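tool_call: predict_structure(chain=1)
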Amino acid sequence: MLVLLHVCCAPDATVAVERLHEEGYEPVLYFCNPNIQPESEYIKRQQATVQLSNLWNLHLILEEPDIDSWNKQIRGLESMPEGSLRCAKCIEFRLRLTAEYAKKNGFQIFSTTLTTSPKKNAKLIFEIGENIAREYKIDYLHRDFKKKNGFSRSVQLSRKLGLYRQNYCGCIYSIRTDRAEGVRRENICNNKG
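tool_result:
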């Protein structure tokens, strides 16, 4: 059965595709990430996804990023930390676009690779996906791809395939959060005596 798989990045997609194939699904990759900034980072992640689709002979749909609409979705939440309402709104925005595409193009089911990341709350993602699925009258496939060492497997596959791996979630606000946390960790380590 075909499943429209929202892809946040190629590394996270590796384990998702591998596991979905094991279950008998045929994933169609849907790269839709207007949150990824700056443009140079967006290009790197998109190129890595194209690379993966070519290596594994996967069908890939590249959606033009609607950055203005994404900015409207998270307006007023920019200063919130990683994992906050800002992230939930971002996930909702991307999964809604995935469901819209799925519905318009005859897919019965959709899912996302976002659950590969240990920094993402799978329960929240499932809730968002299920709510959107009900709205569009299609199915959402609940899979927590980080389980059973999924994240480690994605790192292993990415290295093996030579895929670009990013070091932050995607938006400029997550860069700021990650850098601030790094500075705090460094200060804590330096102050231990």
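agent: The first strand starts at residue 2 and ends at 7. Proceeding to next step.
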